[in-house]
Amino acid sequence: MNKIIECVPNFSEGNDAAIISQIADAIRNTAGAKLLDVDPGKATNRTVMTLVGDENAVVEAAFNAIKKAQELIDMRHHKGEHPRFGATDVCPFIPIANATMEDCIACAKKLGERVGKELQIPVYLYEYAASTAERKNLATVRAGEYEGIAKKIQDTAWKPDFGDAKWNEKSGNIAIGARDLLIAYNVNLNTTSVRRANSVAFDVREQGRVQKGSDGKTLKDAAGNEIRTAGSCKSVKGIGWFIEEYGVAQVSMNLTNMNETPLHKAFDECNASAFHRGMRVTGSELIGLVPLSAMLEAAKYFLRKQKRSVGLSEAELIKIAIKSMGLDELTPFDPQKKIIEYVMADQNEGRLVKMDLVSFANETASESPAPGGGSISAYCGALGVSLGVMVANLSSHKAGWDDRWEEFSAWAEKGQVLKDKLLKLVDEDTNAFNKIMESFSLPKSTEEEKALRSEAIQAATKYAIEIPFEVMKTAYASMEMIKEMAANGNPNSVSDAGVGALCVRTAVMGAYLNVKINASGLKDKTFTASVISQADALVQSTAIAEKEVIDIVLSKV
Q1: Where exactly are the structural domains of the chain?
Q2: Catalytic residues
Q3: Measured distance CA(147)–CA(77) in Å, rounded
Q4: Is the pTM of this model over 0.90?
Q5: What's the pLDDT tens digit per position in 156-206?
Q6: What is the DSSP track for 201-246?
Q7: Straight-line distance from the first to the last Cα atom of the chain, in angstroms, rounded to the nearest whole number
């Protein structure tokens, strides 16, 4: 898999749609780069764009966008709520997949050198790419903002990393860096007071607030450093501001380490501070994209606070996260456009499981040999597991069983993992069949072509054995949960657990037949013998487990 690096340039224009569109097109028209999101803000007069690609594509796309912004944005006329010092204010690189921070540092330096040399824009490297410790913090680099550049750039301590130490009056400066994934997150308050929004921000952000004496002067230690009271959230930067567009004050935060302070903790800490100060949080908004894991963990956090099962579907968890944090209060929140993994997903992936029930049945019944028994087996397994999960979720909030919600939530969560895996295998089994068909269609005119074709057929056949074997193992793994639900779950749903066991056995037996038929065409008999032996054992174990579940069900109905 290629390296995937994310780049999130911020442009000092949030109102002129024509300018924003032209900058976005500069990215879209760069080969190998994919523009994931364009997020303009009117009050901040700032647009955040998110793009991905390999190290060469993201650097080229970023340069093209910065060049276009230089042409179209004149900082001499710029006003906005957000701190800024350039037409393209910041441009960080973030490792996403198969990429390292060193790769991103290299991207930052490559881009910085080119911007300084070709566009004559002073460049400062920040975060992991910073040339000095003083330049690591973006706020320090940008201190004084655009209006302070003319004086600051003459200070030898603030000589640019790239480009001349000369004030570019039209374009200002640019900060280019490499950083961890950052979440730009704003929490809405039921006030218009920036001062009160700042009080919440100071309570929450890591650097907190400076301590002041009774005379109102800042307290300092023996070394002359400001004495601060730390905020409640590590790796959080924040300020308060008023958004005229929405008529509310917000706590605007950058979450720089999701492991230390996840989304839901930042929200709850703002909520606690606001309540303490006589305000309330009414909702929040995400600027740019968010990783799927952040949304799922937020949903589970709020469900656990309610003592509710977290073993829900991904779609339901996302819905709960949106409503719990009020992410749709100011503007609609579309998961397909706001969650990184969804935006990057191949739209052709999961074609079968995205169908409705009628379409899936009709597709199976058509003249095409795929989807066939393998995909149907995987889907039967997913249905069986789903019934077990349903019983677990019903049991978790059964009246009188309040002290057992965590027990059933844990079972439901395990079941959801198995269900999701089986759903992926529905399409993967058909993909495996198609790989075999493709390998048989390869040319065979020369001896070399024949050898390559034979090798491809064997590789595809082996894969077509591995997929249904994976279905067998995954489906069987759910029997423990289904048996537990039949024995100790909600007694009103015991028959559902029984049907789940029947579906799972069908899945295992159906997948077994596919393993057997495909194994007959594989030359690697050692591999075949090993898989068949394990598959035979799974068939026997599944039959025993099914009988145990059905016996339990029949004893109760």
Answers
A1: 4-178, 183-344, 357-556
A2: 82, 429
A3: 11
A4: no
A5: 999 999 999 999 999 999 999 999 888 999 999 999 999 999 999 999 999
A6: HHHHSTT-EE-B-TTSPBPB-TTSPBPEE--SSTTEEEEEEEETTT
A7: 52
